[in-house]
Design brief:
This protein is mainly alpha-helical. It has four helices and no strands. The longest helix is centred in the first third of the chain and has 24 residues, at 13-36.
Length: 93
């Protein structure tokens, strides 16, 4: 028979604490990697780098960790304008 929810919650406290500590280590490693690449790493690149370093982590775990901790990859390409207005055309009001 399973223990009641409160007792099970108390029994799993150690595992939760270990999970949070692992998450903090992962975030600190992502921040270091992000700084190393001058902010140009996005989630797929960070995931590939973590896998290359031997960490077993899913890309679907890296993305929310980066989003929650406000780690954003730099956009290296400039935006292109779709339409270039002619100087002689009338301007809309």
């Amino acid at each position: 028979m399973f223990p009641a929810g409160d007792h099970q919650h108390l029994a799993n406290g150690q595992a939760r604490t270990e999970g949070w500590a692992e998450e903090k280590r992962t975030v600190s490693e992502i921040r270091a990697m992000h700084a190393e690449h001058h902010g140009a790493c996005d989630a797929p690149r960070v995931h590939a780098e973590l896998r290359a370093r031997g960490r077993l982590i899913n890309r679907k775990r890296v993305t929310p960790l980066m989003r929650v901790n406000h780690i954003v990859g730099r956009h290296l390409r400039r935006k292109k304008r779709a339409v270039i207005a002619c100087a002689t055309s009338p301007r809309p009001a």
